[in-house]
Amino acid sequence: MKHPKVLIADDDRSITEGLSAILRDEGYEVAIAVDGQKALDQLGAEPFGVVLADLKMPKVDGLALLKELQQRAIPTECIIVTGQATVDSAVQAMREGAYDYVEKPLTADKLNRLKALIPKALDKFNVQQKNRELSSKLEGLTHYGELTGQSEEMRAVYQIIEAVAPSSASVLIFGESGTGKELVARAIHAKSERSKGPFFPLNCAALPKDILENELFGHEKGAFTGSVNEKPGAFEMADGGTIFLDEVAEMPPDIQVKLLRAIESRSIRRLGGKKEIDVDIRILAATNRDVQKALSENDLRDDLYYRLAVVELFLPPLRDRLGDVKLLANEFLARFAEENGKAMSGFDDPAWEWILSYNWPGNVRELKNAVERAVIMSRGDKIKATDIMPRHLHRTGEFPTTMTVPPGATLADTRRQLVLRAFASTNGDYARTATIVGMTPADVRAEIASLLNGKPGETAASGGTTNGARVAKPAELPPATAKASKAPVKAPPTSAAKPKSKKR
Amino acid sequence: MTDARLADKEALNAVREIVRRAGHELRNALSGVSVNVEVVRSRSERQASVNELTSFAERARLQVGVATMLTDGLLALVSSVLAAAEEGTLKAVRGHGAQSQMELMIYGDRAASLVSDIERLGSAIGVGVEQHGQRVILKVLPEGKDNSKD
Fold first, then answer.
1. pLDDT value, residue B4
2. Which one of A15, A82, A84 has the shortest CB-CB distance to B32?
3. What is the ipTM of this complex?
4. What residue in B sits closest to A16 (Cα-Cα)?
5. Sorting pLDDT into bands at 50, 70 and 90, what band is A353?
6. Can you give the C-alpha Rg of chain A in angstroms?
7. How many Å lie between the alpha carbon of A291 and the closest alpha carbon of chain B?
8. Paired residues of B101 in beta bridges
9. Which of A14, A77, A301, B41 is geometrically suited to a Cys-Cys bond with A99, CB 3.0 to 4.6 A?
10. Spatial contact of B56 and A17, defined as CB atoms under 8 Å apart
11. CB-based contact A230:A220 (threshold 8 Å)
12. Are A474 and A365 in contact (CB under 8 A)?
C-alpha cells in the first residue's frame, strides 16, 4: 500500500482533530468519521489499512462496527480506543476481531503506544492484502511454473511458493513419490532472486554414502585413491543459487552432521581439503517419509530438520486432488500424441471412468507414464481403458482353472473367492457369474459390493493383488474394469503423512 | 437483606453509575487535552507558525475547562453523598424513566455551589438533577449516546 490510510472514528472533535494532526505529522493519510455508521460508509467506499475506533459512538458503536466489518468482510485492522477501563471491554473487542485496544486518556505514553501500534497493524493489513491479491490472481490458474493443477490444494501450494520464494528461507517439501516435489523446488528457485544462479538437484537416496559426500562437498586432488583432480561439490557449484536435496531423510547421519555445519557456517571444506570455502546457497529439501517417524527413529537429525523446515510445504497426492486428474491426463495426452506423431482425439468414456476411479498411488508420475504408454499402444484415435490401465492390472481371461482353499479358510472367504474367480472369468458379467456359482445376480452384486467396500477377506479374495484403485461403489465400477475383473480394492496406506504444524 | 440496607445498596449503585460515567467523560476530556497539547508540542519543535498552533491550543484549553467542570461536579457529588450517608439522609427512591434514582439532602453555606456543580456534571453524563429546597433528587437516565461517551 503506497499511501497508508487511517480512519479515525470518534464523535469527539477535540480528539479527532488533534489525533489526525498527530498522525498526519507521522506521514499517514487520515480521514475522520464522526460516528460508526459514517465509518462503515467510508470503509465500504475506499480501503483503509487501520481504523481507530472509539468504543462508544452514536448510531454504530465500536463493537458493532467490528462485527459489521467482519460480516461484510471489509479488510482493515481496527484499533479500539476505549475509555471503559475494564478487562471485559478489552476482551470483547479483541474477541470481535480488534487488532488491539488503547485505553483513554490518551496520555503521552499511550499516544506513543498508539503510534507504535499503527505501523504494525498496517503491516498486517498489507500482508493480508497481498495474500488476497495473490489468491485472486491464482484463482483459475491451471499452471504454475512446471506444475499443473487448478484444484484448491494446488492453489494453496502456489500461494506458499509465491510467499516463500522471495525469501532466503529453507523449505522442506513433503509429498509422496511422483507428486512433483522437484518441480516445486524448481518453481521456488525460479521465483526467487537466485533464479539467475544454478539450481542443483541431488537425490540423497540414490547415491552411496561416499559418493554423496563427494557430490555435496567435492574433493581435493589426492583426497582418496584415484582422485587425480580436484572437484567442486554441489555447494560450490550451486553458489549463488539453490541446492535441492531430495529424499533428505535417507541421507546417512554423519553426512547430515556435515550438512548442518555447512548450512550454519555457510562454508564447506572439500574432502581432503584444509581451507573453508564460503558458499552462498539456499537449501530446499524434500522427503516422502513420515518426518515425525524419521525423527523418532533417528533417521533424520532434529537440528537438521529445524534448519531445513523453516517453511514446510505439503504437496498433496493426486488422489486428493481429483479435480486435477482430467487436466493432467489431457495435457499428457496432447504432449505425448505430439511427441509420437499420433493424432489422438482423447479418452473414451470407460477410459475416463478408469482414470477417475483409479487411486494413482504413483501420483502424477504414474499418470504421466500411463498416458505415454497408452498413446504409444493405442490403435485408434481414442485411448481405451485397457490402454491406460497399469499392466499389472491387465487380465486377459487367463484364469487358473483350479482354486485352492487353505486350511482355516472360512465359508465366507471361500464363497467370495469363488464368486470373484467366476466374475473374473466372465469378464465381469454378473448374470453369467450367477449361473456359474448358483447364486442370484443380486447376490453376486452384493458379494462383489462387499468386496469393493473393503469387507474382511478382500485381499485373499482378490488373490493378494492390491491394485491401488480407490474403493468404488458397484455402480461406479467402470465397465472395462469390471469386464477385465479389475475389482478395485483399498489403496495401501500413504507413506507420507501430512506433517503436523510445527510449534517452536 | 433489610429494606434499609436494600435502599442503601440501590443508592450506592446510583452513585457508582454516576462515577463511572463521570470517569468516562473525564478520560475523554483529558484525551482531548493530551492529543492537542501533543500537537502543539511536536509542531513547536519544528518551528510551526502561531496560526498553525492556535486552534490546537484552544481545543486543549477548552478540554481543560471540561475536565475542570467534571472534576468539580464529581467532587461536589462525592462530598454531598458522603455527608448525606453520614447523616442518614441518603436514600434510593423509585422513579419513572430512570435507571436508578437517589435522594439526598444538601444544605449549608456551600449548598448552592455544590448543587450547581452537580447539575453541570449531570447534564454532561445523563443524570437529571431536581432540587426541592434542601432535598436533591438525582435521576440516572438511561445511557444515551448523546450524553455519555466511552
1. 65
2. A15
3. 0.83
4. B32
5. confident
6. 31
7. 53
8. B139
9. A77
10. yes
11. yes
12. no
Q: Do B150 and A55 touch (CB under 8 A)?
A: yes
pLDDT band at B125 (very low <50, low <70, confident <90, very high): very high
Cβ contacts of residue A95 below 8 Å, gap of 6+? none
What does DSSP assign to residue A271? Answer: B
A426-465 pLDDT, tens digit per residue, is: 666 778 888 888 888 888 888 777 665 544 333 333 333 3
**Interchain contact A207–B (C-beta under 8 A):** no
Distance CA(A435)–CA(A427), nearest Å, equals 14
Quote the CA–CA distance of A192 and A224 in Å, as a whole number.
37
Residues of A in contact with B28 (CB under 8 A): 12, 15, 83, 104-105
Partners of A218 in the β-ladder:
A232
- Residues of chain B contacting A61 with CB distance shorter than 8 Å: 145, 150
Residue A12 in contact with partner chain B when CB distance is under 8 A: yes
Which chain B residues have a beta carbon less than 8 Å from that of A25? 39, 42-43
Chain A residues with beta carbon closer than 8 angstroms to that of B150:
54-56, 61-62, 82-84
d(CA A169, CA A378): 46
- Which is it for the CA torsion A417, A418, A421, A424, positive or negative? negative
Q: How far is CA A318 from CA A174, A346, A355, in A?
A: 14, 20, 11
Distance from CA of A23 to the nearest CA of B (A): 10
- Dump pLDDT digits (tens) for B76-109: 999 999 999 898 888 888 766 667 888 888 988 8
Q: What is the mean pLDDT of residues B1-26?
A: 81
Distance CA A121, CA A127 (A): 10
Between helices A430-437 and A411-425, what is the axis angle to 10°? 130
Give A44→chain B minimum CA distance, Å: 24
Can you list the positions of beta strands (E) in A228-336? 231-232, 242-246, 267-268, 277-278, 282-287, 311-314
- Region B15-32: mean pLDDT is 92
Q: Is the CB of B28 less than 8 angstroms away from the CB of A108?
A: no
pLDDT digits (tens, 9 = 90+) for A85-128: 677 777 888 888 899 989 889 999 999 999 999 999 998 898 88
Please say whether the beta carbons of B98 and B141 come within 8 A. Answer: yes
**A141 at B interface, C-beta within 8 A:** no
Q: Please give the backbone phi and psi of residue A3, each rounded to the nearest 5 degrees, phi first.
A: -115, 95
Report field, pTM of the whole predicted structure over 0.80 = no
Per-residue pLDDT at A126: 87
Is A15 an interface residue toward B (CB < 8 Å)? Answer: yes
Q: Is the peptide bond before A105 cis (omega within 30 degrees of 0)?
A: yes
Contact (Cβ atoms closer than 8 angstroms) between residue A286 and residue A171: no
How far apart are the C-alpha atoms of A64 and A93, rounded to whole Å?
Answer: 10
- With contacts defined as CB-CB under 8 Å, which chain A residues touch B149? 11-12, 54, 56, 83
- What is the per-residue pLDDT for A178? 93
Q: Does the pLDDT value for residue B69 go beyond 90? A: yes
Three-class SS of residue A80? strand
Interface test with B, best of A11, A23, A106 (most B CBs within 10 A): A106
Closest chain A CA to residue B34: A107
Whole-number pLDDT of residue A226? 76
